[in-house]
Specification:
Layout: H1 9-14, E1 24-25, H2 36-48, H3 58-78, E2 86-89, H4 92-102, E3 112-116, H5 125-128, E4 136-140, H6 151-154, E5 162-168, H7 180-189, E6 193-197, H8 209-212, E7 216-220, E8 230-234, H9 236-241, H10 266-285, H11 292-320, E9 324-327, E10 340-345, H12 350-358, E11 362-363, E12 365-367, H13 372-377, E13 386-390, H14 397-411
Parallel strand pairs: 1-11, 3-4, 3-5, 5-6, 6-7
Antiparallel strand pairs: 2-8, 7-8, 9-10, 10-13, 12-13
């Protein structure tokens, strides 16, 4: 396999100072390394604009302008129609819990919400807890043969009481991308709204909320090359309808502030500008000379090509072993799989294998990755669950080869690894 990349990997890796510490980071689905430019934006805010917005004085006005610039950058990142459609929050989990709270006045006893068994708990738990208020929760099952969500299985679950369908754009275990526009069209045609958890998707592909025609879309910046923070997109008219989570004098029309109680973390929000700056640069390096949005799309095109090479390199190795079970599709057809790859080895404890990698300075993870319901549904909770390698575009073919060589040594029976009984 060719090891050339459409990206300037020397430039790419130079933008992530954490990569200089001697570790291979294959736990990016748990949290990516942060961009130098994102940190610089944080520092700039803290050193030059670190006051509360809303004041008449110059520095407060600069802080407000920085927050608006952050929303504008996020607007370009997801292709929202206006900056006010961006809500910042501490994490995807917190934003989805806030969304559930803000929908209380829209929901009545007997109304229905549909979740999927394949989602991360962040997009299940907040809706599950609404059952205490008499909301009916229904579960859209995963087809165990194809490991896909079939609309034929969703259809009988929907009724005139269905208010919301909650689904992941990409499973953080299976690594496969769901056809969100087709699901959104299906849901909208039946009078319901759709809420998408995009945490496992956003680091790998260009997000286009208008093309997807989704109602609410949430992901974490700390898995998309930024700090530990998150953002939610919502259609403006829908955000207007939500209950305020802030002070009583923050009326329904105060969007998005009413959904950011205590105000957003200004400096972390401002880091979004650094993420977009980086993607714009990658787009320009790929030859795009158009708008900010076009450069972001070009950047993700190059990212996808690089990540496809990484994905196939690892999948080819795992397919070659007769003692390995790949969880999800074993082939990346038409770039429908991101480089988040879970797998198991016959008779091996996942935790033992993962910890053996620590000595190789290769960071990965084992368990159920907070998608416990999916792990239980697929019967993958024994022997410590699954191993998971989650890569992003700054990873290299050489790192994959170093990992597989280390895995060969470990699996060959080196001391310290016990087979499961």
């Amino acid at each position: 396999m060719a090891t050339t990349s459409p990206l300037n990997l020397e430039f790419v890796r130079s933008q992530f100072p954490g990569l200089d510490r001697g570790w291979t980071f294959f736990d990016n689905a748990g949290g990516s390394q942060i961009l130098k430019g994102a940190v610089e934006r944080i520092n700039t805010f803290l050193y030059e604009k670190n006051v509360q917005i809303g004041g008449s004085y110059e520095v407060s006005q600069a802080a407000a302008a920085a927050l608006y610039e952050a929303r504008t950058a996020a607007m370009h990142l997801v292709n929202a129609s206006r900056p006010e459609e961006i809500v910042f929050g501490n994490s995807t989990t917190a934003l989805l819990q806030n969304l559930a709270r803000a929908m209380h006045s829209q929901l009545s006893e007997g109304d229905e919400i549909i979740i999927t068994v394949s989602d991360h708990e962040s997009n299940i738990g907040p809706w599950d807890r609404l059952q205490e208020r008499g909301i009916v929760l229904k579960i859209w099952p995963l087809n165990k043969d194809s490991l896909t969500l079939d609309l034929a299985d969703l259809a009988p679950l929907m009724s005139d009481r269905t208010k919301l369908v909650c689904v992941t754009h990409c499973s953080n275990i299976l690594g496969s991308i769901n056809p969100i526009r087709a699901i959104a069209d299906f849901v909208h045609a039946r009078g319901a709204k759709i809420c998408v958890d995009a945490v496992a998707y956003a680091p790998h592909r260009a997000v286009d909320v208008q093309a997807f025609d989704i109602d609410y879309y949430v992901f974490s910046l700390y898995k998309t090359y930024g700090p530990h923070y998150a953002l939610m997109y919502g259609k403006y008219d829908l955000l207007l309808e939500l209950d305020t989570l802030y002070h009583y004098f923050y009326g329904r029309d105060k969007v998005p502030g009413k959904l950011e109680p205590g105000n957003p973390n200004y400096e972390l929000a401002y880091s979004t500008c650094g993420i977009v700056d980086y993607l714009v640069t990658l787009g320009e390096q790929a030859g795009e000379t158009g708008t900010t949005r076009q450069k972001i799309e070009a950047a993700y095109g190059a990212i996808t090509t690089q990540e496809d090479a990484l994905t196939e390199r690892l999948l080819a190795y795992l397919r070659s072993r007769n003692d390995c079970t790949i969880v999800g599709q074993s082939v990346n057809r038409e770039s429908h799989r991101v480089p988040t790859i879970a797998f198991r080895f016959d008779g091996r404890e996942a935790g033992e294998l993962c910890k053996a990698m620590d000595a190789e300075k290769i960071a990965m993870r084992f368990g159920d990755f907070h998608s416990r319901r999916l792990a239980e549904y697929l019967g993958l909770t024994d022997h410590g669950g699954m191993l998971r390698v989650s890569m992003v575009h700054y990873n290299t073919i050489e790192e994959v080869d170093r990992f597989t060589a280390a895995l060969d040594r470990i699996l060959s029976g080196e001391a310290g690894l016990a087979k499961a009984s």
